[in-house]
Amino acid sequence: MTDRIIVSSAIKPFELRLPGSKYLANRYVVLAAISDGTTRLSNVPRNDDILAALGAIQALGAKVEWLDQTSVEIKGIESFELADDVVIDCHDSGTLARFITALTGLFYSSVGHQITITGSQQMRSRPMQESVASLETLGVSIESEKGFLPIKISGPITGGSCELDASRSSQFLSGLLIACLKAEKDTLIHLSSDAVSESYVELTLRAIELFGGEVKRINCREFFIPGQQALVAKDIHVAGDVVSSSYFLAAGLLAESSCTVLNYHFDSPQGESKFPQVLERMGAKVYLKQDDLKVEYDSPLQGIDVDMGNMPDVVPTLAALACFAQGETRITNIAHLAFKESNRIVDLCEQLKKLGADCEYDESSITIRGGKQLIADKVSSCHDHRLAMSLALIGIKLKGLTIESSEAVAKSFPDYWQYLEQIGMVTELVLERVSETVSAEH
Ligand SMILES: O=C(O)C1=C[C@@H](OP(=O)(O)O)[C@@H](O)[C@H](O)C1
Ligand SMILES: C=C(OP(=O)(O)O)C(=O)O
Q1: Which is the catalytic residue, given 313, 347, 358, 384?
Q2: Relative to the CA of 117, which of 94, 126, 201, 433 has its CA 20 to 30 Å away?
Q3: 406 phi and psi, to 5 degrees?
Q4: 295 CA distance to ligand 2 centroid (A)?
Q5: Tell me, what's the pLDDT at 440?
Q6: Catalytic site residue 313?
Q7: Which residue, 331, 399, 323, is CA-closest to 365?
Q8: What does pTM read for this prediction?
Q9: Domain residue spans in the chain?
Q10: Mutation pick for ligand 2 pocket among 341, 381, 384, 386 (CB with most ligand atoms within 8 Å)
Q11: Is residue 430 within 8 Å of 402, Cβ to Cβ?
């Protein structure tokens, strides 16, 4: 556990290019694993989630080779017949857990080999029941304790039709859409209610299309997936991560300066790619310059009422900004944030309150009244990378703020603190705590 203190901040107008999108990389990695031939991915974010995803497909028989720091070659899996027992560790990645659980449903064994899927303690308490139930309907055998990881799984996915509940996470649907491309027969998925984070389903459908796969979206609740499809390996440059961009756009505004993100992924279907429009509503000036995005401070930010159902991962970024906006910010339609790495409604607000923020919440919304004088104190990331990165932004206005468990950023953005340094923030590890831990261990 490492505490990090925000020592100082002197942010001038800056520009930067962000690492590749973990959202796209997660999809490309699993699709490459079930494609014929060798996929080459460049601009791959080398974070804990993506390293775990590459480890997972490797355990299933894909060949993975790094060509340089950010380029990787993936040769697809040749046989879905298990030659041995396999254990897959998803670490903290919800996306991987849901995608790989569906994918491993394709594997079978005539001699009783099984795949065990596990994850960190945090991941073992996040929902998996929906994936388990729909896979069982499609012919897969699963052993688990009430549907949580670790689970033992043996396929194959025969296909047919299934109901799926995607009201807590769209990842259950995305995983199933990908895996069923290779099912023995055609599959019809019927959603029992609308999917949350719906834009991520579109992200998945686009990625499937890129690899030559076909899914027919009959209507917003029904998907038809022809079985036994042959996917084609691709060469892909992974576009920049729109959620990682949000921290720097917010940093520029808090510093009353400007941020230019080079090669911003404007045409991404991911909801969070529209975060600049939210900032514009708060009073920021937003410019599109060919492939680049510039967000500039103009006048004090204003609180807004905003439905963030399709932008779940930038809610903590918005909450940090809202603390310094004039008036009230109401963030609605976010009940599914309770099932992230932390409970991003309760945990986020409780940390903000520690600093004296005027913040309240219920099961599907957060309200923050900005402009309250905050006190530099210790807040915890609750081992949630997005809380660590967003809470650190408050340090731009509040020197001496300390983030406990700051190492959580490794999940999606291991170089985050170095990036902050590049734009003019000085942060330091609080060594006392590290030595306390060491002496406590001896
Ligand atoms: O499919 C994906 O890549 C993701 C979907 C979203 O999750 P939910 O659908 O659970 O909201 C998002 O919050 C998560 O970070 C990544
Ligand atoms: C929720 C997230 O990821 P996952 O669900 O894949 O753990 C995230 O990156 O904010």
Answers
A1: 313
A2: 201
A3: -70, -15
A4: 25
A5: 47
A6: yes
A7: 331
A8: 0.96
A9: 4-19+240-441, 22-226
A10: 341
A11: yes
The residue type found at 440 is A
Output the six-digit token pair for 393: 């932004």
Instruction: Decide: 42 and 71 in contact? Cβ < 8 Å.
Output: yes
Q: Note the pLDDT of residue 441.
A: 46
Single-letter amino acid, residue 69: Q
Integer Cα distance of 101 and 258 in angstroms: 42
Q: Out of 91, 170, 203, 314, give the residue to mutate to test ligand 1, the one with the largest number of ligand atoms within 8 Å of its CB.
A: 170
Q: How far apart are CA 59 and CA 82, in angstroms?
A: 11
Per-residue pLDDT at 432: 63
User: Quick check: do 4-19+240-441 and 22-226 share a fold?
Assistant: yes
Whether ipTM > 0.95 holds is: yes
CATH number of 4-19+240-441: 3.65.10.10
CA atoms of 225 and 13, how far apart (whole Å): 48
328-332 vs 366-369, strand pairing mode: antiparallel
Nearest to 92 by CA among 129, 117, 119: 119
Please tell me the distance between residue 124's alpha carbon and the centre of ligand 1 in angstroms. Answer: 17
Phi, psi at residue 4, to the nearest 5°? Answer: -135, 135
**pLDDT score recorded for residue 333:** 98
How far, in Å, are 8, 72, 301, 310, 397 from residue 255 at the CA level? 12, 37, 12, 27, 8
CA distance linking residue 419 with residue 304, whole number of Å: 29
Residue 370 labelled as part of a binding site: no
CA distance 266 to 283: 20
The CATH superfamily assigned to 22-226 is Enolpyruvate transferase domain (3.65.10.10)
Residue 223's beta-bridge partner residues? Answer: 189, 217
Query: Ligand 1: which atom is nearest the Cα of residue 22?
Result: 3
> What distance in angstroms lies between residue 132's CA and the mean position of ligand 2's atoms?
19
Q: Which pLDDT does position 1 carry in this prediction? A: 83
Per-residue model confidence (pLDDT) at position 14: 98
Q: What is the block-wise mean pLDDT of the chain (442 residues), using blocks of 10 residues?
A: 95 98 98 98 98 98 98 98 97 98 97 97 98 98 97 97 98 98 98 97 98 97 98 98 98 98 96 98 96 98 98 98 98 98 98 98 98 96 98 97 98 98 97 54 44
- For residue 165, the tally of other CB atoms under 10 A from its CB is 18
